[in-house]
Design brief:
Layout: E1 2-10, E2 13-19, E3 24-28, H1 35-44, E4 62-69, H2 76-81, E5 89-96, E6 102-106, E7 109-111, H3 113-120, E8 124-128, H4 138-148, H5 152-199, H6 205-217, H7 219-235, H8 240-254, H9 261-288, H10 293-313, H11 318-384, E9 391-398, E10 410-417, E11 425-426, H12 427-430, H13 433-450, E12 455-459, H14 467-480, E13 485-489, H15 493-496, E14 501-510, E15 513-520, H16 523-535, H17 541-556
Parallel strand pairs: 3-13, 3-14, 8-12, 12-13
Antiparallel strand pairs: 1-2, 1-4, 4-5, 5-6, 6-7, 9-10, 10-11, 14-15
Helix pairs in contact: 4-13, 5-11, 6-10, 7-9, 8-9, 10-11, 11-13, 13-14, 16-17
Length: 557
């Protein structure tokens, strides 16, 4: 439960410290005194987003701390799950800076806002006069039934199964759409792939083919030059080799007479040998160089195919064509792999849907079993708060065609009639403000009995009621404290008188500024506060006596 709330530098609050107790805590104060400011500060440590414009002093940070006694509540697993330090008295702190930044802490460990919200949902529920409208929503109505039916574990199992089904179904739908598109393009991709595969391309062949084509296209010129060179070197009467051979013979004849010629004779002999070798190679190249029309045609046809494929696929080399061939092969294989995966997903999807349906049916059965208990309990509570002839019915029906939602396979309608002889209709159509407040309180009371929520806050939900009905509403709130801590912000003395701890919110002037403050009232202060709520600021003896009677009645009970 909430044992302490510390607020510093928020709205009209400079610094206050509220020590709450167990049971029914009452907060009263004149309109505009700042009761909603305190609730607004509390909402910040429950995860609501902040705005720096609400600072009392823009030069300081705003700090709000809530101290919660959680030792009797089964939420230690939450701390273990998120690696948080568990303390029997857990402190939640929110720090907000004037530039708009904020930080949140659980037992001095920095956390993100969504984690703060997750924890606060396990600690406090705030019900305001505007929240009575949520009684018309499917979410709240199903939550009410599931809370009484103790469906938390079953609902979680269903939602896990349903989430798994949605994941599988999403993958199935996505893959199916992709496959449909791939199947549409399959024939064309297969044609392109077959065309490239038939071409039997080699990454290096284009350069080689182009070189060979160039060679063959000039074969006659090349052959003519080779033959002429060889003729000049070795075949004509006065060929180069013949003349060199004669020169070498002349040097060799006088070499013994003139030793210095030995070196020149050797060099000339080497040149002769080199030229003979060149002549032989020229002859060999001449013999290898042929005018091959058939080969030339093959080269032209092959290069024409390569150029055509490159133009078709808008690339400049064979390597790019080979990459395209691989991509086409992958797309073709993807269709076959998709077909296989789709088969697996079909089976998995069917199993996940079946499991979701089975858990959904169990959820429906559990809800149906709880409805009579809920209807009887609400009827009894409404009778206690001055609506003895009211009728409350719950209509639960399953979706058609085995439809599922996150909440299950059911839709629900709360039917209500406040007056005898009036046919029950949807709550939104027949309930007035006061009736709606009492109905909501009756539902919240029932939920509180079956939940482990430590604290519930009622923010002026007594709109539209007074007199004996207000007394009954106060008694109903007090009865809730058997299971949880209740904090009620009220303007009705009949409700305020039933609190164990009574706080008054008030404004005061300090240094030309208006401050909101709060204090715990003692017995006599409570008498005066209740008397003012009954008769105004000018306390009459009658109002004071009435206030004492209200307090004494509560103390006797």
């Amino acid at each position: 439960m909430l044992v302490r709330l510390s607020i510093k530098n928020y709205a009209l609050i400079d610094e206050i410290d509220i020590q709450f107790g167990g049971g029914l805590n009452i907060i009263t104060g004149e309109t505009g005194a700042g009761k909603s400011i305190i609730l607004g500060a509390l909402s910040l440590i429950l995860g609501q987003r902040s705005e720096s414009k609400y600072f009392y002093n823009q030069e300081k940070k705003c700090v709000i701390e809530g101290y919660f006694d959680i030792q009797h509540y089964d939420i230690r697993d939450f701390f273990d799950k998120y690696d948080l330090d568990y303390e029997p008295q857990t402190i939640i702190r929110r720090e907000i800076y004037h530039e708009g930044k904020s930080r949140a802490f659980i037992n001095d460990t920095p956390i993100k806002l969504n984690l703060l919200k997750s924890l606060s949902e396990k600690l406090i529920a705030i019900h305001s006069q505007h929240a009575t409208l949520e009684v018309n929503t499917q979410a709240f109505q199903l939550l009410s039934i599931d809370s009484v039916a103790e469906n938390k574990k079953l609902l979680q199992e269903f939602q896990d199964a349903y989430h798994h089904f949605l994941q599988v179904d999403n993958e199935y739908q996505t893959l199916s759409q992709q496959n449909t598109q791939l199947q549409t393009e399959m024939d064309y991709h297969q044609f392109l792939f077959d065309e490239l595969q038939t071409a039997d391309l080699n990454a290096e062949e284009q350069h080689q083919l182009e070189e060979e084509q160039s060679l063959l296209s000039h074969a006659e010129d090349i052959k003519r030059s080779l033959q002429q060179a060889n003729y000049l070197l070795d075949e004509q009467d006065q060929s180069s080799l013949s003349l060199l051979k004669q020169g070498l013979q002349q040097l060799q004849q006088v070499e013994q007479l003139f030793p210095k010629l030995g070196e020149l004779s050797g060099r000339l002999n080497s040149s002769l040998i080199e030229l003979k070798d060149i002549s032989n190679e020229i002859s060999l190249l001449d013999s290898e160089t042929t005018v091959d029309a058939e080969r030339m045609q093959y080269l032209e046809d092959r290069l024409s195919l390569i150029y055509k494929l490159q133009q078709k696929h808008q690339v400049d080399d064979i390597r790019s064509l080979l990459r395209i061939q691989e991509e086409l092969d992958e797309k073709i294989n993807a269709v076959m792999l998709n077909d296989e995966r789709l088969g697996e997903l079909t089976e998995e999807r069917s199993k996940a849907y079946k499991q979701s349906q089975e858990l959904g049916k169990k959820l429906t059965e559990s809800r149906l079993a709880a409805i009579p208990l809920i209807e009887e309990s609400i009827k009894s509570s409404l009778a206690e708060v001055g609506m003895p002839h009211s009728i409350f019915k719950i209509k639960l029906s399953s979706f058609p065609d085995e439809k599922l939602k996150k909440s299950g396979r059911d839709e629900v309608v709360f039917l209500f009639s406040a007056n005898k002889g009036q046919e029950p209709q949807s709550v939104s159509k027949v309930a007035s403000g006061g009736e709606l407040s009492r109905l909501m309180l009756a539902i919240k009371s029932l939920i509180a009995k079956t939940s482990a929520l430590p604290t519930i806050i009622f923010d002026e939900i007594d709109t539209g009621i007074s007199g004996d009905v207000a007394v009954k509403v106060g008694e109903l709130m007090r009865d809730l404290t058997d299971n949880l801590q209740v904090i009620a912000i009220t303007h009705l003395p009949q409700i305020a008188s039933q609190g164990i701890h009574h706080f008054k919110v008030y404004k005061k002037q300090q240094d030309s500024r208006t401050l909101t403050n709060i204090r715990l009232l003692d017995h006599e202060d409570r008498v005066n506060e209740l008397a003012q709520m009954l008769g105004g600021k000018d306390l009459s003896e009658t109002a004071v006596l009435h206030a004492r009677e209200l307090l004494n009645l509560h103390m006797k009970n």
